[in-house]
Records
---
Amino acid sequence: MKKMQTAIVGCGVISEVYLESIRENFIMLEVVACSDLDKDRMNSTAEKYGLRPAALEQILADPEIELVINLTSPAAHYSLTRQALEHGKHVYSEKMLAVEFEQAAELCRIADEYGVRLGCAPDTFLGGGIQSAKYALEKGLIGKPLSGVISLSRDYRVYGENLPHLYKHGGSVLFDMGCYYLTAFASMLGPVKRVSAFGTRTEDSHKVRRIGSRFFGQEITLDDCNVVTAILEYSCGTLVTLHLNSSSILNETFHLELYGDCGILRLGDPNTFGGAVRIQKPHNDEMIIPFSHGFQEQSRGLGAAEMAWSIRAGRPHRAAKEMACHVLEIVHGVLKSLDTQSVYLMTTTFEKPKLLPEGFIGKGFWEPEEESALI
Ligand SMILES: NC(=O)c1ccc[n+]([C@@H]2O[C@H](COP(=O)([O-])OP(=O)(O)OC[C@H]3O[C@@H](n4cnc5c(N)ncnc54)[C@H](O)[C@@H]3O)[C@@H](O)[C@H]2O)c1
């Protein structure tokens, strides 16, 4: 199968993780070029990974490059993805598709119009942890999922000192971390019907005090709520409580749980590929369920690789633009509900992605190709 020539745009923190993982795990993706507005970052990434440093225009004009992986800061996603789609490139975008819901919906329309693929998700949802949880749910191990809990506490005052987009609209906790939890549940439960939320913004701005930070001394304003609670009603009937607090302590806590009529499922950290999944059945101690799926270790690039194989084979890819657009609408539904003090009715929907094939181990595939684990 012909490899897919790929360019990475955005040579920041996550690009290195992507490049290492793609090199190790995904032969389908042949990364040939990288680009960044910050020339030093672009050149050092190019040198380290043997890539061609290139301006965006050069990438877009190169007919050999079929796929652009967008790893820029959230505010740049829309314009960059749009340009790439309009130049006939397939695009895989890191979470989220765009900052505004209307922009994401427009990108979906443009991808359809130009007949190219658009994929987006935190691709951890394809990892062994969440796939095993989805498998357990679909096998009926907890029965009907009646309710669920999403909860995360973090300290963005610390993380944001190196990644100031975390203070900005589009990068705040609902977008940046909420998407891991919302994507995990979207892939397991399907679409949300209604959203009702409360939230607060506990501080107006933050002064960067980390010595050595590129942003030392800067005063950065907080755009969005940093403490959010909401109720999500899924179309399948599940009621989920959402709680996100990005001004808590650095010792992160999280809960991602589904309560069914004959069991409880506790997922691992959706920001990882191999979080252990626990099940509780009546009259039994809680136990860890065995992984049914591979990709339990760092596998960034999995979503893009799965999309590339799907393009070659002409089948739909799992990190579908419709699911990503829906997840972004949930986030905006929360913000709208806060603003209007009313229940937000969702307007988009999507097909739940199929499970990856079960039974693969380690990095998720046997020789000679990873496709067998991604069909
Ligand atoms: N850091 C993480 O752990 C992590 C994990 C998963 C996903 N992500 C996502 O990946 C993306 C990048 O995150 P990061 O942590 O690497 O951020 P970062 O700030 O370290 O890097 C972003 C890079 O994008 C570049 N950039 C911005 N606008 C650009 C444009 N128009 N054209 C070219 N380059 C541009 C910046 O110069 C910067 O080098 C974000 O969407 C983030 O949500 C980050």
---
Amino acid sequence: MNYQTAFGNLPWLAVGHLHPTPTAPEATHAKEHAAPSVDSSMSGRLAGRVALITGGGSGVGAMTAHTLASEGAKVAVTDIDEPAAQAVAHQLTIDGFVASAHALDVADEASWIRVVAEVEATYGPVTVLHSNAAPTGASHMSRDGDVEDMDVELWDFIMAVALRGSMLGCKHLIRGMVDAGGGSIVITSSVKGQTGSSYRVAYSCSKGALDALVRMVATRYGKSNVRCNAIAPGIVETPGLRETVPPDRLQLLEDAHLVPRLGRVEDIASAVLFLASEESSFITGQIINVDGGLTAHTPALSPPGSR
Ligand SMILES: NC(=O)c1ccc[n+]([C@@H]2O[C@H](COP(=O)([O-])OP(=O)(O)OC[C@H]3O[C@@H](n4cnc5c(N)ncnc54)[C@H](O)[C@@H]3O)[C@@H](O)[C@H]2O)c1
């Protein structure tokens, strides 16, 4: 089952950053749109929790929003692409979950201050952060080559979104988590932060630095019952992937994973749910690879025909 069938009632996922239909509301709040017969926040593995997801308008973040909401969390779906966040939150509330949409540029501290205040006023303290936004667009990725060709403005931009964005999320949410008795921060990193490659130097460095941020936050706030972990995905099949990567290159990527497929957004969302929930209460400061075995071997020494 791919994520389109699993998430078939959310058609925008099939086309990535597609904006919602014109009927989507300007602002979506649970009280206005939740189906009255369902109070999903009363049960589930995240019952009573408030989750904020960055980059929640698309791909991994949109699936995480659905997964956390379906386990009882009240979900603040945030994205720089406000219509995309609205579409995700709108569908969640139609499905009977508790969700709201918020425009948030993770690189902008004033934006964080405004959104945290909005979410806390609506739901109370945020106790789960999925810090997931990154500049994944082809216009940035295609220019992020090797270090000799690095455009300094592009480097700064990627660091501002991917790295500063997560730092700001921690900065503005940890105090509320501590005061609430604890919380869980899950950062979307990447295997590219752990292994060398000949392109995407800025993106890879931002992910490696995020892994360090995880350990810093986990160390400082563990005794306050605030945990911090990262998930490092392998290659995940988001809609943009097939548009931007040629088929022969995709086959190479698939071959390098040990399982017979690329990753799915559900694979990452399930891991976020686990790390957000009490089931993982003894896990902190870890980078968990959800990568189909991509980093477990050396592809040149284990070509597909030999396994
Ligand atoms: N897809 C993969 O193969 C893969 C692999 C490893 C890691 N990741 C990571 O997974 C995360 C999600 O990526 P995805 O594949 O779902 O991509 P995506 O493009 O579907 O989602 C990224 C979202 O982030 C949002 N965003 C971009 N800049 C932002 C900003 N400044 N402020 C707030 N939101 C912003 C975008 O609007 C988009 O909705 C990223 O951190 C990415 O680096 C993805």
